[in-house]
Each structure stands twice: as C-alpha cells, then as structure tokens.
Design brief:
The chain is an alpha+beta fold and 244 residues long. The chain contains 10 helices and 6 strands; from the N terminus they run ααααβββαααααββαβ. The protein has 2 domains: 68 residues, Ribosomal Protein S5, domain 2 (2-Layer Sandwich); 130 residues, GHMP kinase, C-terminal domain (Alpha-Beta Plaits), CATH 3.30.70.890.
Length: 244
Amino acid sequence: MIEDFDLSKGVELRIWKRIKPGSGLGSSAATAAAAAYAVSKLFKLGLSRERLVEYAALGELVSAGSPHPDNVAPAIYGGFTIIFSRNPLRVCAISPPRALGVVVALPDFEKGSTRRAREVLPEAVELEKHVRNLGMAAALAAGMALGDVKMIKEAVNDLIVEPARARAGIIPLYEEVKRLGERLDAGMAVSGAGPAVIGLVEKERGEALAKELEKLYASRGYRCRTWVTEPGPGVSELRGWEVA
C-alpha cells in the first residue's frame, strides 16, 4: 500500500488480538484486514471494501502461502460473503437473518499448520459429492438471502473437505459433533481448517448448544472454550478504546 500510493511515511502497527493462531477462526485474516483498513484510514485513502480485500489478501501469504481472500473478505465486509470471481475480485455480502445465532467451540487441540490442512484434501472429487456440495452451498446462500434459519442449518453439510480433514486427524470428534448437531437441531460445521467448530442455531438456543458442546468435549478428555455470538458487521474503527 505504501508503494502503490507513494506514501511519504512508514507505518508501525501494534496488534492486540484475542484470536488464537491456528484455530480455524481467521486469526491471520483478522490481522491483515485490520492493517489494510488502518492504513487506508490513517492516510485517508478512502479505499472501497473490495480494494481493502485485495490488499488484506496479501497478508495471507505469510500464513497460508497464497494471497487468498476467503477469510479477509468476511473480516472486512461482515455478514455472509460470497467470492464469485477472483480476477477481477467480485464479492457479494448478505446480511444474515437477525434470528441466527452462532456458537463457536474451540477444543484444546493442535492441528498443525494451515498448509498441512490443505495438503490432506483429495486431488479428485466424486461427481456425486461435488453436485451435493454445490447444492448445499446454493441452499446456504439462499437461506441467508431469504432469512430462513432452518435452511441455513440444513445446508452446512460438507461431504468433501471436512470428512477428509477428520480422517487425517485434524478435526477431533468430528462425527460426534455432527451427531450432536442433528440431535439438537443445529447446523454444525468446521470453522476454517479447524479445530474450532461453529454451530448455527436460533439465538435463543445458543447457550444450550454451547453447554452441550462443552460436555461432549469434556467427556472425551478435551478442554474446550465456547463463545455464544452472532454474525459481525465487519471491520470498523473504535474510538476511545483502550487495551486492558
């Protein structure tokens, strides 16, 4: 950004972050999104969100080995994002239904690097699974656009990436978490490359889901932290904020 805009000053950034690296929660993307946004604000560049995504994606070179926008786009836009073109970059952002609650569960488990999580993915995919996954992705987008929480919960059902990582030992208790979701009528998915998982459920049932997830992991010897939250608005500036 300094080179592209011929900025006359350098930049030193301090980062306070409560997202554990390697957890599947977009830790590196949060840093990259904040840095791009801060530089744009500091130098009054007035960059659009799409331009911010382009610059923030470069930060992913450090952690993932490629400048991918998968995580920085939602970090900047907020809500539910779809990247339907990479060159040129095209991002669609949808506001999720207000009734949608999100539960994040992070077991105390080291999965290794994101690169390793990508290496275990299959080189070829069966046509039937590919078609099924495309249908689920379309249903998830439709559910977000229509405000249909039931459809959203049913659509988070990956048949390709998550099972491959579970078989490689990267996602602990994957099958049991999925069964818990079925029993509690919640959509359960792996967050990023794991080991964190996310539960999509009606807001009023978020606390109950979090407690059941904690019980499940504890019963198998894993310490686990949970957060009951909701979709966020994306990157923003906080004034008068102090770091504890």
